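Researcher: Here's a chain I'd like modeled. Treat it as a single chain, no partners, no ligands.
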Amino acid sequence: MSEIDIIFKKLKTKNQGTLIGYVTAGDPEPKITPIIADTLINGGVDILELGIPFSDPIADGPIIQAASSRALKAGTTPKTVLKIAKEIRKKHDTPIVILTYYNPIFKMGVKNFFSLLNTYKINGVIVPDLPIEEAYDYHKIAQEYKIDTIFLAAPSTSEERLDKIIKHSSGFLYLVSHFGVTGTRKKIQDSTIKLIKKILPKTSNKIPLAVGFGISNPEHAKLIIQSGAQGAIVGSAFVKIIDENHERTDIMLKRIHKFAHDLKDAMIIKY
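Model: Modeled as a single isolated chain. C-alpha cells:
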C-alpha cells in the first residue's frame, strides 16, 4: 500500500475528504516554494502536488501558465524541483506528487526519471499529455520503483478507455471536472456532479476518485466531497494568491494558510 493510499484510507475513516494542493515549483522563485509548501501543509493540505514549470503547458490556463513563466525565468529546472521536494521532506511526511509534461521525462529518460523520483522520495506522478495507450513502459518502470501513476479522465473519456485508465492508475484517479484548461471558476457545473456519480461505480473499491480543474473555494470543495468524490484538487486558486502577493511574502503566506484551512474544514463530512 502506497503512502497516497494510506492517506485516503485514513481520512475516509475520519469522514474527511482529501485535500490535494498544487503549486508550480519555483514560483515566484525556488527558495520560496518550500516555505509555501510548509504553509499549505500546516493549513490542511493532505497531498502536495508540485508542478515542474514547462514552456508549453497545454492543459493549463493563464494563471498557471504565468506561474510557469515566472518559475522558468527564476531558473527552475526539473532537478531544481526535486531539490525543493527534498527540502520539504526534511519537515513533512506528506505525500508529494510531481506534475510534469512528458517532454522533461523523455529528455531525462524514463528509467532515470523514476530513479531520481525514488531517490528524492516522490510518491506519485501526473503527466497530462501522456495518453494511456503510450504509457506501457512508463507505467512498468514506475511500478518497479513503487511510484504511483496518476492518470486523468475527462468528460469525453469513453467507457472502454476509462476502464483502461482505472486499471493502470494508482494513488488516485484524477477526474477533470470540465472541458478546457485549468483555472478558477465561479461555480461547479451540474454536469460535473453527474460525471462524478457516473464514474463512482467504476472506481468504488478500486481507486480513490479526486476531482480537479476549477475548484476555487470551500463551497466547491464541499460539493465535490458531498457528491461522493474522495478528494478535491485545488491549483489555480492557490497559484492566484501567489501571483497577487509575490512581492509581499508575509501576506501571501497568511492568505494561503487561511484558504487551505477553509478548504479542509469544508471537506469534513458532517452528519
